[in-house]
Please model this.
Amino acid sequence: MSDDATPFEQIRRVSAAGNEYWTSRDFARVLGYTDYRNFEAVIEKARTACFNSGQHVEDHFVAITDMVGIGSGAQRPLRTIMLSRYACYLAVQNADPAKEIVALGQTYFAVQTRKQELTEQEIEARRRLLLRAEMKTHNVQLADAARGAGVVEPRDYAIFQNHGYAGLYGGLHAQDIHARKRLKKGQQILDHMGSTELAANLFRATQAEEKLRRERTIGKEKANRAHREVGAKVRQTIRELGGTMPEDLPSAPSIRQLQAKPRQALPRGKA
Model:
């Protein structure tokens, strides 16, 4: 049976924004729950499992009012839940295993969820590679701008970099970040950043370079202060947007592992 032919794909809906979802009432019907109240207990178990897995429940279970036909063309509003694919996976895992359709759903959504996870991992890998390459380029440009401001010696440049990190990471220096991320000796911080953290640091580096050049900064202390101010401003923006502070983001596997993979093993972007 192809994916499109399964009863689960036949009840799949797509929102105006292009996001797929299933309604809990459609899902209950397909799984053979004649009394929707019995399926509500399944949904609650699925919500608990979602929370325990560290996911944001509201990203996968959204309460809405759906208009349901009651005959003669009439409709009435009924409360239902918009379920993501992951929510459906959790629901079938908590449904009545005696139902044959439940066993089919468990297999189907396990496979589909794994496919989605792999796709997301591939996208993340590509983002990390691109951002890490950009970070290398802009760190060279930042170093050049710092030299123009009077940051010449390697020790002074290390101090300059620590000021940028301190602004972005709430006072933490490179050594502190290394320890917080539980990295081993010799492992580079940037090589173990996910795409979100790399993007924040790339923004810090590009804006610090621009600030030094634009303001024609002269003097090590002024350069250090400028770098810290830029880092703090990026941190403030992350906070205002409700994002996770960079020091709280998990470390990622070494990007060197991705760089060692054949180019064709990574997804290709559109031309």
In short: The chain has ten helices and four strands.
